[in-house]
Sequence to fold (364 residues):
Amino acid sequence: MNTIYFRAQMLAFALAFASVAMAQRIQTVDTEGNPVGYASVANADNGNVIGATDLKGVLENVGGAKNISISHVAFTPVVVSVASLPPDGTIVLTDAKFELPEVTVKKKEYVYVQTYYRVFLMFDDTLMYYRSGVTDNTYNIRKKTVSSQHEHFSKAKMGLLKFILDGIVGGVIDDYSNLSTNNVCLGNNDGKLTLEKEEANRQRVLFKDTLVGYIVDDHDDHLRRLSIDNETYSRLYHADKDSEKKAKKREKRKEQRKNEVSTRYMVYQIDDDGNCRPEDFVSKQIRTDYDKYSNINKKEEHHTMLVEIFSTDRAYVDKDELKEKKRENKIKMDYNSLMQFEKNHGIPPLPDNALKSLQEIVNK
Fold:
């Protein structure tokens, strides 16, 4: 009898453990059930970064967190209790309803598009660097080229680190915040990417028959969402293109940055026929995660760089109107002004724990 009781107890324990383990896995989806890749997940109780969902919206383990916060440029941030999740761990995200000002296409020489960006650099769970600001993008319709001017506010834990990061990271961030003109609805495509229809509103993005991303069209809201696994795409792209010297350099960098994951997510407006133009850009997210040994701290650190970019103004203009647009969109580059700018333009707010960490670093 005791043996039967013991076995029953062990079975109950195993089932309970399996239930808890299953609850640790989550998958982020939109209201139509499409997977939402590259959503950032953090422990809502202490603000520690847990990770990000993969291309299919899955994060296998939330690290024992009881409550998690989830943020994404295209969706409204949420905080959920892990215990309240369904057995499959599905979390439904709702569109952020980020509104762009309506424009009427006119016979003018330029399109003015203003973008707002914010950048976070984390070492483990410590916010080391923050940068935000605006980019004035001028798209020449006839030449199909973009010129950009950047203004930014930046802050870091140490003065030297700020100087180094502004020099190294700054130019990269400016490039990210520039309006893209190269196959805007598909990303950096040189003709090697192909599309394969998966469902009525969802296409697979393939590179040499390997899945590297998804395109999801929301025809009700006239939005196209593109998710790309940068790490896989870059590896396949450079495999044939790199010289032996470049291949060795890339391999060395890979050894220094272990378990690297790089992702890109973009949102564009589309018309009734599913077409979009550079000026139809809505938002973009670039995230890079990797492990690197720190000679200073004598341990392996997890580095995360998250870049979020939002379109805040757009208009068809001539030269004089372009100058006026840039003048009227000038803002003061300090933390409080930029936070107010986010509120005024309906930019999805940061989760409370992330905002607290940001205020701490800015106030130092």
